[in-house]
UniProtKB/TrEMBL annotation:
It comes from the Bacteria. Pfam families: Sulfatase. SUPFAM superfamilies: Alkaline phosphatase-like. Keywords: Hydrolase, Metal-binding. Residues 15-113 form the Sulfatase N-terminal domain. This is Sulfatase-like hydrolase/transferase.
Length: 152
């Protein structure tokens, strides 16, 4: 993805830019919850904050805390999305690129005494979507698009 963005940035700088569409589909966070060491070391079982609906049963609580790698995987994903955004900025493409982030992942992590996607409860089936759009940042002055229409 980074190389593709760099190429599009070079095209833009040469005056030969074209609209583009790119998709990045990632596996994490799914078990086994193994993230790079730099992220795993920050998320240890003792630091995992359990949801209020994790029952006070030591076996359930212990297993839920052992899912620390899940949070390490999320942080690694966030870091990589940051790399993409930085690359877009460096390529001069951040003002006219839409980023849509979808996540259909959920995991019970001990909620209701269950794990993974065992039940159709909110924790296991949540759907999240984010839309990041630099166009609507009011601190960015108006520009003219290719057809002369204002771009905000």
């Amino acid at each position: 993805m980074i190389e593709h963005i760099d190429e599009r940035g070079a095209q833009r700088k040469s005056g030969n830019d074209q609209p583009f569409f790119a998709v990045l589909s990632v596996q994490p966070p799914h078990n086994p919850y193994m993230a790079p060491e730099a992220f795993r070391s920050k998320h240890t079982p003792g630091k995992v904050e359990l949801r209020p609906n994790v029952p006070p049963i030591e076996g359930v609580r212990s297993e839920a805390r052992n899912d620390a790698g899940y949070y390490a995987m999320i942080e690694n994903l966030d870091w990589n999305l940051g790399r993409i955004r930085d690359c877009l900025r460096e390529a001069g493409l951040d003002f006219n690129t839409h980023i849509v982030f979808f996540s259909d992942h959920g995991d019970l992590h001990g909620s209701h005494g269950q794990f993974h996607k065992m039940s159709p409860l909110e924790e296991a089936t949540c759907f999240r979507a984010g839309f990041f759009n630099r166009h609507f940042d009011s601190s960015i002055p108006d520009k003219k698009g290719k057809n002369g229409d204002p771009v905000k």
